[in-house]
Structures are given as C-alpha cells and as structure tokens.
Amino acid sequence: KVYNGTYGEDNYEEETGMTESETIKVRLKQCGVPTYSINTENWAQIKTVTINYGTENGCIGSYSIDNGTTWVEGNSLEVTENNKNVIARNTDGINTITGSTYQVTKIDRTAPTNVTVNIQKTTKSIKISANAEDSESGISRYAFSKDNGKTWTEYQGSKEYTFTGVTTGTYKIRVKAYNGTYGSIGAKEEIGATISEENISTNVTLEACPVPTISVTYPNEWAQEKTVTINYGKTTEGCVGSYSTDNGTTWKSGTSIKITENNKNVIARNTDGINTSTSTTYQVTKIDRTKPTN
Predict the structure, then answer these.
(1) What is this structure's pTM?
(2) Strand ranges (DSSP E) for 149-225?
(3) Smallest Cα–Cα separation from 107: which of 179, 200, 205?
(4) What separation in angstroms does the CA of 209 have from each of 222, 232, 239, 245, 279?
(5) H/E element, 14
(6) Whole-Å CA distances, 199 to 207, 245, 255
(7) Model pLDDT, residue 226
(8) Is 175 exposed, middle or buried, given 0-12, 13-18 or 19+ CB atoms closer than 10 A?
(9) In this predicted structure, which of 52-56, 82-86, 139-143, 251-255 has the lowest mean pLDDT?
C-alpha cells in the first residue's frame, strides 16, 4: 500500500489517499537437503564421508556423529568406528533442513585371531598351510617367513606356500594373516595383521639325505673280482643315490657293482638336488688278475 501526504489528516479516507500494488508472489527457497558420499562396497580401517550441502546462499552446513548432541561445520570427516551414525543439517539461522541419518558400515579395526600353522617337509622344501579367523572383514591375504619373521614373502591370497631349494638346517616358521581391510586406502598393518606365535612346534629341521655306506664281499681275501654293495639308507622322498669309480668325474645309479681292478676307489652319494651326502672313499683291495710267472 502507498499513502499520499494526506494520511493522518482529519477526515482522511484511505480509499482516496492510498493505492495498493498488485500481488507479487515471493517464494523463499529452503536450504539444500544434505547428501552423503562414501565407499560402501569394501571393508576398510577408516572411511571418509563427504557431505554435499548444496549451493544456496546464506546456508551453513554442519554434521553430528553423536546423534545431534554436538554439531561441527565441515563437508568431510573420517570415521573409524563401525556402524557409526552421521547426521548432516543445513540452516540459514531460521529454517533448518536435516538429512537422513547415515550409518557408516564395513569398518574393521580388529586384527585376525587364532592364526595356526601346519607344516609338511622334504629334505629340501617346507610346505606351510595357514589358517586364521576374523569375524568382521574375513581373511584376505597371508605372508610367510622361515627365519622367525626377519624376512617375509610377498603377501598372497592363498593360505598355502612352499619354500623350495632349502638347504639342510633348522628353520623357524611364522605366518602373517591380514584381514579384509588390507589394501584399502589408509590401511595399516599394525591394525589389520596378526603374526602367528613363536613356538617349538613351528621349528622345522630339514635332514640331509642319508649318507651311503659301502661294503664288499670278502674284503680281506684275494679274488679276481669283488662285488661292492652300496646302501643309500632309508628311502627318503626326493633323494637319489649314485656312485663313482673315477673319483667323482662321472656318476652312475645303482646299488651293486663288480670291481676287477686292484686298489680301485669307489665313492657313493645321495642327493635331492640341493643337499648332497657323500660317503667316504672306499678302496677295493686284494684283487689279482695276473697269472703266475716263472
């Protein structure tokens, strides 16, 4: 309404001294409803929640992680607690729009438990089968050590690993189990991995192939030929025996040979391709293949 200068005078009539404008409709826009963005597919030790408050002027966004007791301004926050609720609101001081409550899931900050180790061995290999438990994100990877954790294999999805080409000796086996968060952004090994305990049951001793023994028929009697018998010991997986009659230049397989030369040396060995056990040199004596003279 617009009033002329007569307003307030005696005998003033509004219909004479006032003009009313046409009706103009004004719509006040509300602040934008906050929305959330987060990785919901994968397990993680920490997750980042991004909040979009829209672009309305005069509106200020804030969020709460204690169900609305306290509010913090910001459009990004890191959450480390599984099933944590996040609420966001947008306000101009008079009108307030609150987003739906968002529950952040698939956060696991507990390391695996019950890491166990089973071992099979040959004379040159150690096969390890591991197992572990994680009730939240599960087990995703394993790594293996044969020096009590000083060095580790690359982590892998399989729970089995075989150390090959191992020399004779004693090895302390350890296994490291990773939960399902490993490999996610911000994942830390000290939170998501567990190493098996050190104990005597995981000390593995690889024994060499048995040392061959050499025997001969009638070693103290003269003969025109003698039979040498080689005993390679108990049957051991991966061990192959052989002998040499030329001081180790060439080797042949077998357990029995005939010697017709006096003072002939025989050597035997037992090997798995990595570790070799060699007998002492045996000299076959008292062989005579020359006729009497004169």
Answers:
(1) 0.77
(2) 160-163, 169-172, 174-179, 193-195, 203-206, 213-216
(3) 179
(4) 34, 9, 6, 21, 11
(5) helix 14-17
(6) 20, 47, 42
(7) 96
(8) buried
(9) 52-56
